[in-house]
Amino acid sequence: MEDRKIMVHVKDLKKNFGKLEVLKGMSIDIAEGEVVVLLGPSGSGKSTFLRCLNQLEAATAGTIIIDGNDVTDKHIDINAVRENIGMVFQHFNLFPHKTVLQNIMLAPVELKKMTKEEAKDKGMQLLKRVGMEQKADAYPSQLSGGQKQRVAIARALAMNPDIMLFDEPTSALDPEMVGEVLSVMQELAAEGMTMVVVTHEIGFAREVADRIVFMDGGYIVEQGTPDEVISHPKEERTIDFLNKVL
Amino acid sequence: MLYIVETYGAMLLRSLGQTILLTLLSLLFAMIIGLIFALMNVGRSRIFNFIGTLYVDAVRGVPLIVLAYFIYFGIPAGIKSMGIQDFRLTALSAGTIALAMNCGAYMAEIIRAGIESVDKGQMEASRSLGLSYGKSMRLVVLPQAIRTMIPSIINQFIITLKDTSILSVIAFPELTNTGKTIAGNTFKVLETWTIVGLMYMIVIIALSKIAKRIERRVNRGR
Question: In chain A, which residues touch B (CB < 8 A)?
Fold first, then answer.
């Protein structure tokens, strides 16, 4: 892993919401192609950490360097950096006034990365990849939760990002739809995508993650391979948490 | 009644035209004013927030009739006292400014509420794709906000149409002012105001019917 390019470099990241300190100094390096799963109780700062990476939340202190760009720098073109970071949300956040295909085409066309025809081809290709090509002209309201999330993944991939962030992508889904979303994510991981995933799916974490990061109270408590963290946790808080969810 | 229609029909229709002209002009500018101040209010800049709130509070805090007097009589008097003699505001432009400012303040609140009714995740998803704040607002948030805004905007249109009658005080020849003239000339007070009232009513009912149709069309495919 040492010889791989560092895609995400975070040093002493702190984030406050008013007086509440959510991240109390986090440092982590994530290599190209690595799949990192963040585990931890709610309120531990996992989602906040993820949202700091693409600056949906501005960091209070610390450094975040994504693929060589310091995103905490005020003078950086954050929109250009975000093109390279796809994000998938818990509540899908598809654009309800646009069709499935239009959802995917919006960013590439508006940001002039592709012509309409190219974006359409790319969109159909992505929809095929997530098994949704027959729903290209449907509106989001006509889809099930699992279908929505697969479309959201396709939309996030449309700008050809090098990094994908997943913020509890299966938490809002009915249980029978979790599998279809996880299998799309698993394929993505197998293709070598750099992924940072916040999830409560321990099974997915064990199978797909290269590294598990266990967070609590705004700190990284413990990290390592799935075998180390999930099967042989060392820290009291990790053991406690795993006992509750397993 | 027939006598008034026969003698003053053309005059009434002409003044109804003036009323509609005044309404349309005011609404056009009110939409622009409303959008500008609404965007100021929902943005993150404290200075813009302050300006936006100040405008809405100031204009909503003054009765339309006072605003009309201020613009039609007050401003030219002020400019004259500064030594500029030939400054003039027509009743139409003063009326349009007063109505547009007034309606613009309410429109700003309607648009702000509409924008805020759109789930925050929409802006976040759009920004996460690399689209700028402005593009996200224009392509993702506003098209959704418009749907919730339409009933309130139609309501505001109707209020503005009726508020044009207040501008009879600055001698603008709109429908109510013409009604006053006719009632004064003929002493047929009941008949005159019945006709004037019916004319407003017909236009407003027609307007709401058209608006309902637009609302249905916009909501399709939701």
Answer: 54, 56, 79-80, 82-83, 85-87, 89, 91, 93-97, 106-107, 110-111, 139, 141, 152, 155-156, 158-159
